[in-house]
Amino acid sequence: DAGVTQSPTHLIKTRGQQVTLRCSPISGHKSVSWYQQVLGQGPQFIFQYYEKEERGRGNFPDRFSARQFPNYSSELNVNALLLGDSALYLCASSSRRAQNTGELFFGEGSRLTVL
Amino acid sequence: GESVGLHLPTLSVQEGDNSIINCAYSNSASDYFIWYKQESGKGPQFIIDIRSNMDKRQGQRVTVLLNKTVKHLSLQIAATQPGDSAVYFCADPSGSARQLTFGSGTQLTVLP
């Protein structure tokens, strides 16, 4: 079975531009979460979606937005990019069984570099 | 705010030795903890978890110990192998949506 897939794997943008990152969860998983991982740090929570509804939002500015589609895939959008947005963006999915534990299955991430 | 953290940013061990990676947490209400392994260029991978009503849990070559009195947990890796070289994170689902809060990670390097 395929794991969590993310695209693109790497991308370079300039300040002020906008970026859209995509994620497909593990088949059967209805919850998708997004994390930002700056080099040398642990992942930081951005969003969680379950059944297409936002269930949680981390401490990120409104430039960050996300959505989940009927097939449970998800997109993360970041507007007006800043140099500090350079990071690895991780998508994770979880099953209904894991909703009470928090166990997540991560993709390999999208590496965003902002110049 | 409430958080989890790790004691040492780096740890080097000889191949075949046992490794111990430590983590401290501050939220007394945390009821569940997970250890993740992140290899270079990859996303975090689940290793083992433990609930707060347990003191110890064993997996294949890994053991997690939880000391609720001092809010400390550790990950022990037996007979460390080169493939164990990675960054290790402890995490707990402390958010309102059970989102994971990660510590800063320990880079484990296995020496030949």
Q: Low-confidence spans of chain B: pLDDT under 50, at least 5 residues?
A: none
User: Distance between termini of chain A?
Assistant: 37 Å
> What Rg of chain A do the Cα atoms give?
13 Å
Uncertain segments of chain A are: none
Instruction: Determine the most extensive contact between two protein chains.
Output: A-B, 25 and 25 residues
How many strand units of chain B? 11
Count of β-strands of chain A: 11
Overall shape of chain B: globular
Could you give the order of the helices and strands of chain A? EEEEEEEEEEE
> Number of DSSP helices of chain B?
0
The oligomeric state of the chains shown is heterodimer
Shape of chain A: globular
Strand content range of chain A: over 45%
Largest sheet properties of chain A: 7 strands, mixed
What's the Cα radius of gyration of chain B?
13 Å
**Please, how many helices of chain A?**
0
Give the terminus-to-terminus CA distance of chain B.
40 Å
What's the mean pLDDT score of chain A?
A: 93
Strand content of chain B: over 45%
Biggest pleated sheet of chain B = 6 strands, mixed
**What structural class do the secondary elements of chain A suggest?**
mainly beta
Word description of this protein:
The complex is a heterodimer of chains A (115) and B (112). Chain A has 115 residues and is mainly beta. Helices cover 0% and strands 50% of the residues of chain A. Chain A has no helices and 11 strands. In chain A, strands 2, 4, 5, 6, 9, 10 and 11 form a 7-stranded mixed β-sheet that branches. The termini of chain A are far apart. The model of chain A has no long low-confidence stretch (mean pLDDT 93). By secondary structure, chain B is mostly beta strands. Helices cover 0% and strands 53% of the residues of chain B. Chain B has no helices and 11 strands. In chain B, strands 2, 4, 5, 9, 10 and 11 form a 6-stranded mixed β-sheet that branches. A 5-stranded antiparallel β-sheet of chain B has the order 1-3-8-7-6, with no helix packed on it. In chain B, a hairpin with a 6-residue loop joins β4 and β5. The mean pLDDT of chain B is 90. The chains are: A mainly beta (115), B mainly beta (112). The interface between A and B is medium-sized, with 25 and 25 residues.
